[in-house]
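Obj.: predict assembly geometry.
Materials: sequence records (below).
Method: joint structure prediction, all chains together.
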Amino acid sequence: ESKRQHQASVVFYERGMDDEFTQLMDMEPVLRRAFQDDEFLLYLQPQFDFDHQQLCGFEALIRWQHPERGLLAPAEFLPYIEQLGLSETLDTWVLDKAANILTRWTAEFNHCWPIAVNLSAQQFQHFQLIEQLQSLVQKHNITPASLELEITETVAMSDLHNGMSVINKLRNLGFNVAIDDFGTGHSSLAYLRSLPISKIKIDRSFVRELQINRTDATILKAMIRLAHGLGKRVIAEGIETEDQQTILQQLGCDMMQGYFYAPPMRVELAEQLIEAELNEGRKPLPGSLAAA
Ligand code: C2E
Ligand code: MG
Ligand code: MG
Ligand code: MG
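Observations (raw structure tokens):
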């Protein structure tokens, strides 16, 4: 009886593996075609400054406009991209797109809101990353400081020696580096001191339970104080309610990003937001963009 159960589970397991593999192989030409046919979209999510209550930048977030399945979020296709070794192709596409937008904004608005781009582990560890970024800023004639590079805590810490050297080079060239999903990795806060980063992004998991979980508030308070002590700015992601905003502001958080202010949006919408700020001097009120 138990042996039969065992056999059954082995068969099931193998078939599961096969399906997964087949699925991955099926995805390869589809994803390559998606790059060729330009099916990816860069969405931008606004970031706001607590002190000045104003727009202070954007995060670039990829979407896939699938011909049959509609608009897909990263969780639905990034795992395939990673497993198929296409992360560099994707990151290069995103960087190029972001640089294009920055050039256009500088020409149109005579001002440039920084765009933060998420770097995959593969891209961050790529031996030609520095050269690639250097030629990108030259080609598009943008200031390196307008491009912020988000690296997750786990990636930054996975090879601390190499990571530190890459981040140092990026800083020396004028790029801003932010540590994404901060607090979810296993790094010691002391490591933060040695990393020449400009910003930490507090992970949404801390923000989510802020109202009910006092421990999270205590941890956050310590994190923010430490970051400030080291001269780094702090942004919180995933703010959905006014209460979360209030608590984060009290804890000394510098910047915020979340559905409470605005969701990730198409570039044209982000530009309307910029125009509203510029032309009417209208400050985007928290919550007023939630439906955009
Ligand atoms: P992330 O870099 O931590 O991005 C923040 C995620 O939180 C985004 O999900 C964003 O849409 C979502 N978010 C923002 N505000 C709120 C909120 O108030 N509530 C909730 N529930 N979520 C909020 P998204 O766009 O699905 O991206 C997921 C992850 O995929 C990103 O996490 C990032 O790790 C990765 N990713 C996205 N775009 C890119 C890209 O262009 N390149 C690379 N390499 N990775 C990307
Ligand atoms: Mg990010
Ligand atoms: Mg994040
Ligand atoms: Mg996150």
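Conclusions so far: The beta strands are 40-49, 54-66, 70-72, 115-118, 147-152, 176-182, 199-202, 233-237, 255-257, 265-266.
To do: check interface contacts against the pulldown list.
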